């Protein structure tokens, strides 16, 4: 399946289950607490699995010479959420479901942004930045040549 589509699948599942929690918090139904707990745990599960796959995918996307630096920057930027989370919890006390609607929206945005990252499955990792540029150039030229070949067959 590949790392990209595994991550995409988990982020979309986190989107759906997080949105369900937000909706259930807003409506009054029997067994509301059980549904909220079940879907909140599912959201956490999908989010954790997606996070692990995303860290692997993005780390493999960096060339070896900057891989540690890229991972460090990526990990630092993601910790901004830890700083914002207490404010979201505070706002969620006043607006039912806000926290999970935000989680759902951010996971959907992350899944869409993920589509721009190249798949790393069965690919040789780049050692230098020049290797990365060269591989990118070769992949783009191969796509153009295959398009020209298909057009010339007709």
UniProtKB/TrEMBL annotation:
Keywords: Membrane, Signal, Transmembrane, Transmembrane helix
Bilayer topology term: Multi-pass membrane protein
InterPro entries in the record: MFS_trans_sf
Transmembrane segments: 36-57, 97-117
Cited Gene3D superfamilies: MFS general substrate transporter like domains (1.20.1250.20)
Subcellular location field: Membrane
Span of the signal peptide: 1-22
GO CC annotation terms, alphabetical: membrane
Bias type Basic and acidic residues, positions: 142-154
UniProt region (Disordered), positions on chain: 135-154
Domain of life of the organism encoding this protein: Eukaryota
UniProt protein name: SLC22A4_5
Species the sequence originates in: Mytilus coruscus
